[in-house]
Amino acid sequence: MKETEVVAALIWKGDRFLICQRPAHKARGLLWEFVGGKVEPNETKEQALRRECREELDIEVEAGSVFFEVLHDYPDLRVRLTLFHARIMRGEPKLLEHNDLRWITVEEIEQYHFCPADETILEELKRGKGRNCRRG
């Protein structure tokens, strides 16, 4: 199965982080995820992250360090997901592609149904990882 490079942003606002709900018509529709998407040819992961955040939420972000990387097999594709710490440099998130967005606390994670590739990342957040590296 071909591997697809995917990037996403862990964006904090105080003790809350940003999650987005996938559109109903897409694969894994209405599940929650971190904002991001596929890395295009001739694009760095950081460039892809900035582009995806601009396209999906109309925000400019600065990519920080990598929080976590995970390899996950879906029935239709294998993704290598790199989640970056990121902070918003300009704009407020707007719903350009997603069904909804929320700022949630780590304690609220269980109230949402996330994409399976995010489950390991969410466990790291629940264990307290990433809290000391908040940005923005």
Task: Characterise the protein shown here.
By secondary structure, the chain is α+β, with helices and mostly antiparallel strands. It has one domain (about 5-135): Nucleoside Triphosphate Pyrophosphohydrolase. About 15% of the residues lie in helices and about 40% in strands. It contains 2 helices and 7 strands. Strands 1, 2, 3, 4, 5, 6 and 7 form a 7-stranded mixed β-sheet that branches. Strand 1 (about 5-15) and strand 2 (about 15-20) form a beta hairpin. The model is unreliable at about 130-135 (pLDDT under 50).
Identify low-pLDDT runs. Answer: 132-136
Q: How would a crystallographer describe the biggest sheet? A: 7 strands, mixed
Ends distance: 37 Å
Average of the residue pLDDT scores? 92
Q: What string gives the helices and strands in order?
A: EEEEHEEEH
Number of strands: 7
Keywords:
136 residues, alpha+beta, Nucleoside Triphosphate Pyrophosphohydrolase, 7-stranded mixed β-sheet, globular, disordered C terminus
What is the strand and helix layout of this fold?
Blueprint: E1 3-13, E2 16-21, E3 32-33, E4 36-38, H1 45-57, E5 60-73, E6 78-90, E7 100-104, H2 119-126
Parallel strand pairs: 1-6
Antiparallel strand pairs: 1-2, 1-4, 2-3, 2-7, 5-6
Q: What is the gist of this entry?
A:
With 136 residues, the chain is of the alpha+beta class.
